[in-house]
Amino acid sequence: MSILLEEKQRAFADLRDIKANLAARGWFPATSGNLSIRVGGFEPSEFTFAITSSGRDKSVQTPEDFLLVNEKGVPTEATSLKPSAETLIHSEIYRLTGAGAIFHVHTIYNNLISELYGERGSIPVDGVELIKAFNIWDEEAQIEIPILPNYAEIPRIAALVEGAIVPRIPGIVLRKHGIYAWGANAFEAKRHLEAFEFLFEYVYRLHLLQK
Ligand SMILES: CSC[C@@H](O)[C@@H](O)C(=O)COP(=O)(O)O
Ligand SMILES: [Zn+2]
Question: Is the complex ipTM higher than 0.95?
């Protein structure tokens, strides 16, 4: 599968913009978080994506921030850069959903809410307007956002993604870790990520108010 230089540069530029935007909100504490955008053609068994390199300070912009990997998470070009430690989770989400972009952040609210509903295995959200950001238009829609355990071995988490994905919900939460949100493109993935974070804060604060 050939990736045009132009497609790669566009993906890196888009990742750079979204990285700066999310960093400005403090959504990449302590080098956490990773971002990817799919480039070129897509077959569930063969695809390429641009992803953040591992362990870097995502609040600064450098020429070493991104690299291309294939569906197995292996770099497709000679590079000394290491792809994100969580690349396999991105691969699995692309394979299963055909998404065009995936954004992962650690925030206080996504961590708190994941622990509050960790045993239940999903976060219930009831009738909040921002559910429409997921293209769910039912009046007083009720959704459940799936939560997976946060194993140390990423392949163990990746193996659970297929069973956890809920078709109309473009995200998965890892318990006491963070959220993966995706969309058809970077614009949509960002909208979904913002909606999830809004809903997590809402549910958490409502829980406190009702106590
Ligand atoms: C430094 S804590 C965060 C990491 O363990 C991990 O969860 C994370 O999100 C970032 O890993 P990375 O390999 O930089 O993509
Ligand atoms: Zn993480």
Answer: yes
